[in-house]
Specification:
With 155 residues, the chain is mainly alpha-helical. It contains 6 helices and 2 strands. A hairpin with a 2-residue loop joins strand 1 and strand 2.
Length: 155
């Protein structure tokens, strides 16, 4: 942690700045969740793009996916360690999809959960980034309600 002292109208304010010294494991966690978020959104986007030919919904999802970014891509990439991921193997529920609807739900949940993790951990870096992931999460909640109603007939 880097501690900075800033003067503000004759008073001293203590500011914790952890960006430059962010723990590598935190960055690895952020990188993994950015990937999960974008992948989950992409699966849902492609369902509406290719299966339903729904340009409007696919475009909304594409825009959300493009919001799922952070500026320190290289720093995040340098912490990626797929080979040593302790939960790399899939569990049964991840391997089991019964229909298009189950794929849709699983990927909405994956994206929502990842955006929540990003929202929390970005609070250590940037409130602006944290609020961006919160926005994405709530948009995904709203889209899930509408889109699962539309697609529930494809069970």
């Amino acid at each position: 942690w880097i501690v900075e002292i800033k003067n503000k109208t004759n008073s001293k304010e203590l500011v914790l700045n952890c960006h430059n010294s962010m723990n590598e494991n935190y960055l690895r966690l952020i990188d993994a969740n950015l990937n999960r978020l974008r992948e989950g959104i992409r699966v849902v986007e492609d369902i509406f793009r290719y299966v339903y030919n729904d340009k409007q919904t696919a475009t909304v999802l594409k825009e959300l996916r493009h919001l799922s970014r952070l500026e320190n891509y290289i720093e995040l990439l340098e912490t990626r360690d797929v080979k040593n991921d302790v939960l790399r193997s899939s569990i049964k529920s991840e391997q089991n999809r019964t229909d298009l609807y189950s794929i849709l739900i699983a990927n909405f949940k994956r994206a929502q959960e990842s955006s929540r993790v990003l929202e929390e951990f970005c609070k250590l870096i940037s409130i602006k980034d944290s609020e961006n992931f919160k926005y994405i999460r709530y948009e995904l909640y709203n889209l899930e309600i509408v889109l699962t109603k539309i697609t529930s007939n494809s069970k």
